[in-house]
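Summary for the steering committee. The consortium agreed at its last meeting that each partner would contribute one worked example illustrating the joint modelling workflow. Our contribution is presented below. We chose a case with several input lines so that the handling of multiple components could be demonstrated. No manual editing was applied between input and output; the record is shown as generated.
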Amino acid sequence: MSNSPIETDVVIIGAGPCGLFAVFELGLLDIRCHLIDILDRPGGQCAELYPEKPIYDIPAYPIISGQELTDALMEQIKPFDPQFHFNQRVDEIEKLEDGRFHLKTDDNQEFICKNVVIAAGGGSFTPKRPPLPGIEEYENGSVHYSVRRMSDFEGKDLLIVGGGDSALDWTLNLTPIANSVTLVHRRDKFRAATDSVNKMLALREEGKINFHLGQMTEIHGENGEMTGVTIKGSEEEVLVKCNRLLPFFGLTMKLGPVANWGLNLHENLISVDTEKFETSAEGIFAIGDINHYPGKLKLILSGFHEAALMAQKVNAYINPDKKVVFQYTTSSSSLQKKLGVK
Amino acid sequence: MPKITFIEHNGTSHEVEGEAGMTVMEVARKNDIPGIEAECGGACSCATCHVYVDEGWLPKTGASEEMEEDMLDFAFDVRANSRLSCQIKVTDELDGLVVHTPEKQF
Ligand SMILES: Cc1cc2nc3c(=O)[nH]c(=O)nc-3n(C[C@H](O)[C@H](O)[C@H](O)COP(=O)(O)OP(=O)(O)OC[C@H]3O[C@@H](n4cnc5c(N)ncnc54)[C@H](O)[C@@H]3O)c2cc1C
Ligand code: FES
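What follows is the complete predicted structure of the assembly.
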């Protein structure tokens, strides 16, 4: 499916803290943004890796958790009405003849914008691949790290591995349509929501799903078609017959498509200048953990500063004739109007 | 200073000096021990600092807490002596500690 391209001033790739704050700085200059993130919610590392852990070095917040920081940023940028596109990865950036940029996601959504801000952090979050020999061979059909279409699993023999919400939610949702479902987890304790755990236990009780305590050690199959997986328990090994495997071992950050955009890189980070945080491609900026310059610190604080300076240059591109007047949010009535506080 | 020995999957052994107060993961990183990735820098959020504590040392290192146990779900080939090395604090008591690094972090 292909949607018609979305036209906007700026597309921000990555909705981590730095991408979010960029909306604020650009918004003060009347520049509107669309944000794209592979995750299903804003916050980047703060929301995905450490929502409940404290951060102690955000200026003026002696302590704030990853999720609280994300929520506060979302509140702060609300007046600028940012448009979010989640569960999508930006795969391509191309410069058009008129100087604008064309972006395309893995969901075939296209964007046309005047400037691009890459706030891709440590790269796109990607599911962890179990280090089982030969697993790659089965990734074209038998092994799935997420469920995009439930119909792919209809009438199949599923092996679901993990003890968190994804593993249990899909066990519950796919059991009615699959031919058989086997759940495997290394211990008899589940991190998932209590309600899902209880529902899963009920299915187990009724004999609607099989459960094995153990870990995967080997995949069996031929020509890319999986036939089974060996599960090693504390005492014995069993061969579970299955033709679809869904392993849920969390996410890790992989640079991903950023490496293919033709930008100058420094050890997998995008090189930028420290005046405008512009990349080697005019009109494309990089802020936050993804960029590199002498003295770079991968701190949220630094990313916020980078967002402010980047916004000035983007403004010069988008509004070349507008006179830039430096203003404080405290005292400028026009800024306050934009923020909706006046 | 407490000494710690890291034994790689292939048998290569590294004896290094730790410092009370550091974590075993930090000692590994400081000494460039292969096989400890520690992507999250010690926040118990990535499980790429997974190690096997040498059986004899288990009583001294103690068991993992619930948060660490949950995170171990994301490690590969978890065993009874699995720990996340960022959650083991080095103390003088642990002088001589031996840990094994896994064949692969996830
Ligand atoms: C455990 C832990 C503790 C930390 N503690 C602190 C601390 O105390 N203080 C501090 O300042 N910093 C801390 N950090 C670092 C801080 O979280 C990062 O500096 C910050 O998250 C960087 O923000 P960002 O917006 O640049 O990128 P990220 O937060 O990494 O967000 C980038 C987003 O871009 C998305 N993305 C990437 N590529 C694509 C693509 N092609 N298409 C679509 N989406 C894409 C990713 O999915 C991700 O959601 C900590 C980090 C961790 C892991
Ligand atoms: S370093 Fe990430 S969990 Fe230990």
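Chain A has seven helices and 21 strands. The mean pLDDT of chain A is 95.
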